[in-house]
């Protein structure tokens, strides 16, 4: 899977931009705050209809603009597919082959991307909510039905929490039981998806981590499931506590992931080097996992992370991805990048203007 072309209209600091990419490696070089990350963000937005940097759509719009769009031509399995996502006065509109998709969940999965940015270390050392969001976004790319199941679960969860805030004397226990049944039905599907995903991610990432650590470290990823045995009975047992606290205390909305390196919880007790290697192993594992699920390798976005890695990790990373995935790297300088491949295109980014200043054997 590759992105052949990209067109931006009023996205961040790009009023009107058209780019054609190298199918192998694309390097975007420029100082900070010039627009490099905006390119990576636009590709992520084209894939998932949302930003990895902000929850506010308004921040994606160019100054004083009310609408924007990101369009791209995707080549996968010998098929060329035009994609477009726009923010308009009528809301978010996603199109495949110029035809609007009624549900965003039906759109997601047409372009699969793996983003690795400095903030992705939060997957390892951040809050459980960060790891749940990571799970949700990655499973959603490869199994669109997951997004539908998750949406139904979250909708029921919100309804149940709202009902728990009612006057306790007016609570209808039978209606609460109906909500519990729905929550269990949808929640069990979410749990099943997450279990399967974590098992696959663990199998692939543990092998990659062994390679990246040169056999010195063993990585294990554990699905820290909030529901211990039977969702229905645990939810029923927690009902009085939930009524008192006016919130649902049991369910996959409280799940987490645990990362063990040599049997030590690396999130809390690992070194910064171990945390970086773990994050890198997880991100690289997603590449093979998506290929396993879809038959196509995803696009890899490396946003300002190469300077965060030492020379050996850089070399290991490039050896593992170059020639396998179409890769986009944003960086302030080439000085720290070693052993770059022959097949690549270099773009210079300055004040929202992009110049293609070098192409090496991009055939």
From TrEMBL:
Q: Which SUPFAM superfamilies match?
A: P-loop containing nucleoside triphosphate hydrolases
Q: RecF/RecN/SMC N-terminal domain spans which residues?
A: 3-354
Q: Which NCBIfam families match?
A: recf
Note the PANTHER family from the entry. Answer: DNA REPLICATION AND REPAIR PROTEIN RECF (PTHR32182)
Recorded source organism is: Pseudolactococcus insecticola
What does this protein do, in the record's words? The RecF protein is involved in DNA metabolism; it is required for DNA replication and normal SOS inducibility. RecF binds preferentially to single-stranded, linear DNA. It also seems to bind ATP.
Q: What is this protein called?
A: DNA replication and repair protein RecF
PROSITE patterns attached here? RECF_1, RECF_2
Entries under CDD domains matching the protein? ABC_RecF
Q: Does the keyword Cytoplasm apply?
A: yes
Tell me which residues bind ATP: 30-37
Protein location:
Cytoplasm
Xref: InterPro entries? DNA-binding_RecF, DNA-binding_RecF_CS, P-loop_NTPase, RecF/RecN/SMC_N, RecF_2
Q: Name one GO biological process term.
A: DNA synthesis involved in DNA repair
Where does it primarily localize?
cytoplasm
């Amino acid at each position: 899977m590759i992105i052949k072309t990209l067109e931006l209209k009023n996205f961040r600091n790009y009023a009107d931009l058209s780019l054609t990419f190298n199918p192998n490696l694309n390097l975007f070089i420029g100082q900070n705050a010039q627009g490099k990350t905006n390119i990576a963000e636009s590709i992520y937005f084209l894939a998932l209809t949302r930003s990895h940097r902000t929850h506010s759509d308004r921040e994606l719009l160019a100054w004083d603009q009310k609408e924007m769009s990101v369009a791209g031509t995707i080549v996968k399995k010998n098929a060329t597919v035009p994609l477009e996502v726009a923010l308009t006065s009528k809301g978010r509109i996603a199109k495949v082959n110029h035809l609007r998709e009624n549900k965003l969940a039906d759109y997601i999965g047409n372009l699969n991307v793996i983003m690795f940015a400095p903030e992705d270390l939060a997957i390892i050392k951040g809050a459980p909510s960060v790891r749940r969001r990571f799970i949700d976004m990655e499973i959603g790319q490869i199994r669109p039905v997951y997004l539908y199941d998750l949406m139904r679960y979250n909708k029921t969860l919100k309804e149940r929490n709202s009902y728990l805030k009612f006057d306790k004397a007016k609570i209808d226990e039978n209606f609460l039981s109906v909500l519990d049944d729905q929550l269990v039905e949808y929640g069990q599907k979410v749990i099943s998806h997450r279990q399967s995903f974590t098992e696959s991610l663990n199998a692939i990432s543990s092998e990659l981590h062994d390679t990246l650590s040169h056999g010195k470290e063993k990585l294990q990823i554990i699905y820290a499931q909030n529901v211990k045995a039977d969702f229905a009975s645990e939810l029923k047992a927690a009902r009085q506590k939930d009524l008192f606290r006016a919130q649902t205390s049991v369910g996959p909305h409280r799940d987490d992931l645990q990362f063990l390196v040599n049997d030590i919880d690396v999130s809390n007790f690992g070194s910064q080097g171990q945390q970086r290697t773990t994050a890198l192993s997880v991100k690289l594992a997603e590449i093979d996992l998506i290929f396993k699920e879809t038959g196509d390798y995803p696009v890899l976005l490396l946003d300002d992370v190469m300077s965060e890695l030492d020379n050996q990790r850089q070399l290991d990373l490039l050896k593992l991805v170059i020639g396998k995935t179409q890769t986009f790297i944003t960086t302030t300088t080439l000085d720290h990048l070693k052993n770059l491949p022959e097949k690549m295109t270099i773009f210079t980014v300055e004040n929202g203007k992009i110049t293609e200043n070098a192409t090496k054997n991009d055939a």
